Amino acid sequence: MSLAPRLDIRQSQSLVMTPQLQQAIKLLALSNLEIEGFIAEEVERNPLLEASAAEDSDAPDREPAPEVRDERVAADELVAGTGAGDEPTLDVDYATESHQQDSVADGGSGMDGALSMTGASAGGAGGEDGPDLDAFADTSLSLADHLLAQAGPAIPHEDAFIAAHLIDQIDEAGYLTVSLLDIANRLGVPLVRVEAVLATIQTFDPTGVGARDLAECLALQAKEADRYDPCMARLIDNLDLLARGELTRLKRMCDVDDEDMADMIRELRGYDPKPGCRYGGEPAQSVTPDLFVARTKAGWAIEINATTLPRVLVNRSYYTELSGGQQDKASKAWLSDCLASANWLVKALDQRQRTIIKVATEIVKQQEAFFLKGVAHLRPLTLRQVADAIEMHESTVSRVTSNKYVSCARGLYELKYFFTSAIQSADGGEAVSAQAVKSAIRALIDTEGAKILSDDTLVDLLNAKGFDIARRTVAKYREALGIGSSVQRRRARTLEGAG
Question: Are 174 and 143 in contact (CB under 8 A)?
Answer without folding.
Answer: yes
